[in-house]
Amino acid sequence: MVHIPSSQIGIVVTKTLILIMGGLITYFSYQAYSRTGTKQHWWLTLGFGVITVGAILGGMLDLVVETYFAGDLLYTSVFVSSAMTAAGLGVILYSLYTR
After folding, report:
1. Contact present, 45 and 26 (Cβ < 8 Å)
2. φ/ψ of residue 38, rounded to 5
């Protein structure tokens, strides 16, 4: 039987929740864009999408690094997730700034 560390289970559970909630927020933002056609809603949708994809990508990298590289590249997954979150928040900020 294969032992799965509790840290990996925690990552999978939280990233799944982020995927579901972030996906729903992105979907509803896109629905608002479809109704209004405003560029602010488009940028808002893009920002939430980038944050969601970044969180999932960071989680996937974390699991791959922990499984195959014994934690040698652990900070890479944290950097990718953080960079995508920062970029997504920047896009959301831009969506609130544009007219």
Report:
1. yes
2. -85, 145
Residue 23 lies in a domain: no
Phi, psi of 96 (to 5 degrees): -80, -20
Does residue 88 lie within any of the structural domains?
Answer: yes
Residuewise pLDDT in 10s, the chain (99 residues) = 777 778 778 888 988 999 999 999 999 999 999 999 999 999 999 999 999 999 999 888 877 777 777 666 667 788 888 999 999 999 999 999 887
Residue 91 is assigned to a structural domain of this protein: yes
44 within some domain? yes
Residue 22 near residue 48, CB atoms below 8 Å? yes
- What domain range includes position 33? 28-97
Contact 8, 74 (CB under 8 A): no
Look up the pTM and report it: 0.84
Neighbours of 68 (CB within 10 A): 9
| Number of separate domains in the chain | 1
